[in-house]
Design brief:
mainly alpha; TnpV; 6 helices; 125 residues; two-stranded antiparallel ribbon
């Protein structure tokens, strides 16, 4: 019997009942990086809306590093925007010392707007 292309490339088969299934494995990534909330959100987006791109990243062994990079970009953008908006709107440490409830409300508002911006610009691009 002639060898299949998979066997010619050095692949093996394992017998499962009446079937010979190829022994497949994903390439290992160089380093296992932690993925934060932004990376997890982007992963969910890829799985739901960009399945081919997700599968290509997964099978090439680049998914984890890609998500870690997206997470870092999004976190940096988020922190920079929060700082800039707070400065522009006059939300300072002095306001925090004088009226804590107003400071918390305004900071929550800024964080919510910033989360929407980062989500639109980076996560679901």
């Amino acid at each position: 019997m002639a060898k299949t292309i998979f066997e010619e490339m050095g692949g093996d088969y394992v017998r499962q009942g009446d079937y010979d299934l190829p022994c497949l494995s994903l390439p290992a990534e160089k380093e296992n990086q932690l993925i934060g909330i932004w990376g997890q959100r982007h992963l969910r987006y890829l799985k739901q809306h960009r399945k081919v791109f997700y599968t290509n990243l997964l099978t090439s062994g680049k998914l984890n590093s890609y998500l870690a990079d997206i997470d870092k970009q999004a976190e940096d953008r988020f922190l920079r925007l929060v700082e800039q908006m707070a400065e522009r709107e006059g939300v300072t440490e002095q306001l925090k010392a004088e009226n804590q409830m107003e400071w918390v409300g305004r900071m929550n508002n800024i964080r919510s707007r910033t989360m929407e911006i980062v989500n639109e610009e980076i996560i679901i691009k």
